[in-house]
Amino acid sequence: MGGGRKRGRTQRRHFKQGRENVWKHNPQRPPAAGGEGAEGGAAEGREGNPSWQPFATENPAFEDYYKAQQIIPEGEWDDFMNMLRKPLPATFRINASCQFYQDICSQLENDFRKSLETEVSDEHEEDAIRPLPWYPGNLAWHLNFSRMQLRRNQALEGFHEFLKRENEVGNITRQEAVSMVPPLFLNVQPDHHILDMCAAPGSKTFQLLEMIHQSTKPGMLPNALVVANDVDVQRCNLLIHQTKRMCTANLIVTNHEAQNFPGCNLAKFSSETCTDESKLQRLEFDRVLCDVPCSGDGTVRKAPDMWRKWNAGMGNGLHRLQVEIAMRGIGLLKVGGRIVYSTCSMNPVENEAVVAEILRRCGDSVELLDVSNELPELVRRPGLSTWKVRDRGSWFGTHEDVPRYRKNVISPSMFPSGKGTMDSHVAIGSVEINTDVIDADMKDSTNMVEGEQETKTASDDVNNGGDPNTEETSKLESNEVPNDSDKKSNSASIRTEHSNFPLHRCMRIVPHDQNSGAFFIAVLQKISPINENQEAELIKGEHNISKDRAEKLEKGLGSDKVPHKENTVQQQGVDDGNVMDEQQNGDVDNETSNGKSSEEAKVIVNEAENDQAGPRDRRRKPQNQGRWRGVDPVIFFKDEATIRSIVSFYGIKDTFPLEGHLVTRNPDAGHVKRIYYVSKSVQEVLELNVKVGERLKITSLGLKIFERQSSKDGSPCTFRLSSEGLPLLLPYITKQILYASAIDFQHLLQYRTIKFPDFVDAKFGEEASALLPGCCVVVLWEGHQNIDSIAMDPSAIAIVCWKGKTNLCVMVSPLDGKELLERICLRYGLKIPKADDVKPSMKIDGSDEQPDLSTEAVDPEAVPESKASDMEIADAKEVE
Ligand SMILES: C[S@@+](CC[C@H](N)C(=O)[O-])C[C@H]1O[C@@H](n2cnc3c(N)ncnc32)[C@H](O)[C@@H]1O
């Protein structure tokens, strides 16, 4: 029963951009002859529209680069390339915390698995759909159809509809198989604080939420917290849309540069600052997911445009940012905690080189874990220990060989030994993607390949096997010292280094091992605090803060506790206290001084409540609205009178904790429109955030639980229940609640408004008419022994309704209603009504008489926004 929203323009734009990446119209080229060829996805494009030309699934520079890097043994090269040219099979995951989890599992096993058998076209595959063997609990499924086949094949239409609908309501998530791997290696527990540093569009965030909610009983909240961050405001909105499908009060969405993610630390147990030591003093995490921005060439099966775009500079240009993000993640990680670094790139400069640099910077404080005994059924290959760097058409095996004028661009950390790292810090000061590198290589990728064919590659076994621990750092693989012209062209003749870090513990997932995309994953554990010298290094490198602070740390003067008042916003009624000056003050400066912040801060958040305020209201808003311009502040909702009226109207048991758990985004208490529920873990972070001067830029949080409802019916309560929050509140509601038979429940969903005498069960109609006017809950009792315990049953089905003068009206979005209708019909063996029979305002006797809307007087503003029902957002969400 996740919530839903109308798709915004932003989401449509993202979707269109996504589509751009699939097929392009090429008016210059005549339609290709023939039917479906071996080009897989490329050939599929011809089925529907012959004027749509497939991308050429080749790029000599790509092959040249990865052959030289020996990411795949020579004997497997053809298999590897052939697989890259095939379309990616679709995959999805069942949300084990959704109430229809069992129903969906059985539908897949007993219905679709058999009915789709005949549609399998791949001679190597027996099953039409099958669970991914490595995903725990058979929750993830692989289809032997590509996304294109799903869209085009008539026989698959029903199944495709099923996938779209279940994805939209949050019962399943369509996600690339390899993208599901990183969260599994986090070993998440229900009480963990987790940071997802680069989270949009949110498939892994959703997976993390599934993990923390999976074993939670109805009405209970896990103690966990997920902070999902992304620098891109528009992608943040996709993330918000995605996670709205989950009933969770444990999520905070933030909008920061991950490498500058603010620290929220109060002076450590200072009695002046905080008397209650049980309160959260420091925002740090048990788990960090660092799924960094990358060149993305592992997604080429899904995004064929990559063939055309790819160049070696893409990876080089991202390396530094990736290191900075990972280092910030380690800074925010608790001692003993795990961080997973991942990319969907195959490039060692973005993968092993980044991991090696982390290990180099952190010394004994961080360990690269051997996770070979975790998920044993997942086929993976060891990380590389040797690689080289390509820049402007030349190969370099060591930083020493890089021409002087390129030394600041091609940093030592890109090489296996990392030698010369100290020099690079001068250049690292501010983190930027070096477009110069990318541009240069764009030219290279088109100009240099033919003239510089590399005919020979070094031996295969160096990269993928061997025990790197036995190797010396910067051991040279070739004794030949090339002259300048050799160096430029021949990858085999250059000196290459070998890392002595155990990089074989990193995991490479390659497409031809299990018919997937490519992915890179490294699991690291923080063994001890990063020492002060390392921290100083880190700060110098990452945050560009004042030199004297870094020097102070280097000299071992410890943490600087001088508060930077100019960077903290004094909150009315909040004792800002003695805020520990962390590097985040530097971050805050960055955010506000680099010209980015004002743009960044223009967050258009779906939850933003200023939509309800007219010009007069806006003027009334207090000056101090929060730390971040354009983002509504998070305000604890403390209006006692309103809370009392809600509690009394719905008979909410006093075991349901409300105090400190209700927040709004509207500082004007008299005009609050939506109230959100937050878990204790979120509540604590919010309190801490206020104390440190609102360093977190929070774009979304919590679970919408109550919404303002004006009505002419004279309801004593001005707030109705939100469908999103109902599963959480249901076990605690004692008034305004009705229990319906399957047939009456079905009719309610089918006709949406039913007059009291028209219910099949007359007693139900009478009970409905006896309720107080206003919002109520209807629970399906069929299939349950004892009415009193239904609400505690995870499979209980309930909907929010409105009791008017003459009838009961459903307040569930049409899409949720349709989905629910089909689910109950399947569960209770009822006939699924045809689409034409599901008319929102038809009487059950079949006449088209409209319900008396004037008597209902439901505030149109309060009717739930309908969920998007077409394909656009479902596809957009599939983005890795
Ligand atoms: C590989 S995608 C993340 C995919 C996501 N983890 C998921 O599973 O849906 C990388 C994300 O990093 C974001 N990003 C790029 N630079 C960033 C930065 N400096 N800080 C935070 N996020 C960044 C991009 O906007 C993009 O959404």
TrEMBL record:
Provide ranges: composition bias, Basic and acidic residues. 472-489, 556-567, 837-846, 867-880
- Extract one GO BP annotation from the record: tRNA methylation
| Gene3D superfamilies, sorted | Vaccinia Virus protein VP39
Q: Which residues belong to any copy of the SAM-dependent MTase RsmB/NOP-type domain?
A: 80-527
Q: List UniProt keywords, sorted A-Z.
A: Methyltransferase, Nucleus, RNA-binding, S-adenosyl-L-methionine, Transferase, tRNA processing, tRNA-binding
Q: Which InterPro entries match?
A: MeTrfase_RsmB-F_NOP2_cat, MeTrfase_RsmB-F_NOP2_dom, Pre-PUA_NSUN2, PUA_NSUN2, RCMT, RCMT_NCL1, RsmB/NOL1/NOP2-like_CS, SAM-dependent_MTases_sf
Provide the transmembrane region boundaries.
Answer: none
Q: Looking at the keywords, is Methyltransferase present?
A: yes
* Family to which the UniProt record says this protein belongs: Belongs to the class I-like SAM-binding methyltransferase superfamily. RsmB/NOP family.
Protein name, as recorded: SAM-dependent MTase RsmB/NOP-type domain-containing protein
Q: Which organism is it from?
A: Oryza nivara (Indian wild rice)
